[in-house]
Amino acid sequence: MAKKKPNTKSAKEPEKMINPSTGTEGSPVSIPETATEESIEKTVKNKLVALYRLQTIDFSIDKLRSVRGELPLEVQDLEDEIAGLETRVEKFNNEIKELQTDISNKKISAQESLELIKKYEAQQMNVRNNREYDSLSKEIEYQTLEAQLAEKKMKEFAIEVEGKNELVKQVEEELAERKQDLDAKKAELSDIVAETEKDETVLLEKSEEQRAALETRLLNAYQRIRDNAKNGLAVVAVERDACGGCFNKIPPQRHLDIRLHKKIIVCEYCGRILVDDEIVKMVEQD
Predict the structure, then answer these.
(1) Is the Cβ–Cβ distance between 15 and 262 less than 8 Å?
(2) Domain hosting residue 168, numbered range
(3) Which of 61, 78, 249, 274 is the most core-located residue (most Cβ within 10 A)?
(4) 188 or 35, which is more confident
């Protein structure tokens, strides 16, 4: 009786899942013995449909927000500029107050010097010797210089105050213009937001519902790819045998893997998740 030959063929290795965040094969996916190729394809296809549907919704939100253009940034820039101008006006006004205080102090100092001069001149009339007279003369001379110096400082401070007041006037005029520009930009932005707010709210609700339907690991990978993409596209369709995100050619075998829906495939160049026409049509028909 012939002996049976031992089975030398190794057991079929389980299919590996492509990591959506890196585009590399990860650890083997555990597949139940009862799982069929049809059920695997259906599970992966459902995930791809959910991802592409979420991408479609998020892209629509991006387009609505792009209508606002640079207006939000322009409004922010104007608000920052106005805050800076107001700070300058406040600074100039504080400096003017300080100068006015200095003028008042110098005025008091000059007045005190004049009073001392009168006092010393009166004392000179009653001196008993030349020594006392010379001493009082020096005091009169010193207080005269002090009064003259105070008068000089008062004039200098007054000129500074005049210059500061002119600067305040110029900045306030510029501030008024910027406030008018800000009001106009805010009104324009409010009109645009009012036009798109309802649609955006609906889309945001749909986006949240779709995100809730996805497993956390897949959603995190989607968001990471989307954040790194300049156009915000994390899931793209294959168009003319090329990636719809970076437009690099896709090898025929990889293209076949995408159509089979047995695993999630990402572009080896840009890392975006790739879907075929069938997935696109299923989402468009919803």
Answers:
(1) yes
(2) 71-194
(3) 274
(4) 188
Tokens for 17? 């899942």
Q: What is the largest CA-CA distance in the chain?
A: 159
Each residue of 100-121: pLDDT tens digit? 999 999 999 999 999 999 999 9
- Are residues 136 and 100 located together in one domain of the fold? yes
In this structure, the answer to whether residues 102 and 153 fall within a common structural domain is yes
pLDDT tens sequence across 213-266:
889 999 999 999 999 988 889 999 999 889 999 999 999 898 899 989 889 999
What is the C-alpha separation between 223 and 19, in angstroms, rounded?
A: 14
What SS3 class is residue 40?
A: helix
Q: What is the dihedral of CA 141, 145, 147, 148, to 10 degrees?
A: 130
**Distance of alpha carbon 235 from alpha carbon 224, whole angstroms:** 12
Q: For residues 248-279, b (16+ Cβ closer than 10 Å) or e, as one string?
A: eebeeeebebbeebbbbbbbeebbbbbbbeeb
Number of domains making up the chain: 2
What are the residues facing 237 on neighbouring strands? Answer: 275
φ, ψ of residue 239 in degrees (nearest 5) = -125, 120
Specify the CATH number for the domain of residue 85: 1.10.287.1490
